[in-house]
Amino acid sequence: MQLKVKAVSPRIGADIPVPFYASAGAAAMDLHACVDEAVVIPAGQRRVVPTGIAVALPSADYVALIFARSGLGIKHGIAPANCVGVIDSDYRGEIMVGLHNAGDTDYTIQPADRIAQMMITPVVQAQVELVDELDETDRGTGGFGSTGK
Prior knowledge:
The protein is mainly beta. The chain is 5% helix and 34% strand.
């Protein structure tokens, strides 16, 4: 599939890269901070960081999902504030990443820093049917930890 990417900032392609897959096996592309100066995310707070790009997914059969970068999340507690961002196929505005700092110290994002990753994946829109009963399974209504793991 082809992903159309529009630069909404003149910095894209100049000092901020267009998203790309870093390796042949990469599932997601890094998104970069398109900011003119450093952005500080205080401990326990959130900030919205622009990426400077908009995308056009080819159809409603696809969605772009925004995930944390592993290193930022594990080392610094920086992750999308909504856990996973959803970019619908009909959205054409700039991709903005709401980041939360779950760490105990302030974190500074510099211009062009990699802040999140974007995965393009197929979508299945379910046909919802309201029923009185669901099929039985061995697990049944067992919740967290019910399988003994």
